[in-house]
Amino acid sequence: SKSSEEIKQQNSELSEQVHSLVSKNSAMKLDIEDLHKKLEMAELMIQQFSNQAGSLDANQQLQMALEEKASLETQVAQQLSESLQQLQIERDQYVEKLKEEQSIWQQRVQQLSEQIHTMAGEKEKHMAQIRELEANITEL
After folding, report:
1. Are 52 and 61 contacting, i.e. CB atoms less than 8 angstroms apart?
2. Whether residue 7 has pLDDT greater than 80
């Protein structure tokens, strides 16, 4: 019985280890696929560079790379500027919306305050009438 329990325990542990190894294997397969893709991209870049290298000298390649870098930097700066402008517009619209809502709530608070004041006046008037009626009842 003890031996059977020990074997079951060992079997369970080994099963967990197998499951862990299968998971690691799957992860490694994904990593290998990613590395193959990166390798293919690198080979394509090398091939393109080799094709360009045959027709251009190093100075021309450097100049082209610098021009492309400057162009990309200009594009990025332009996109950042446009994004910033868009964000500022959205912020201004949001601020305007908040101001409108604040105004609406202030008007509502003012209306409620006026209603409370009016009701308080009516309450005082009604209380005076009640006192007057009570006095009349007392006289009667």
Report:
1. yes
2. yes
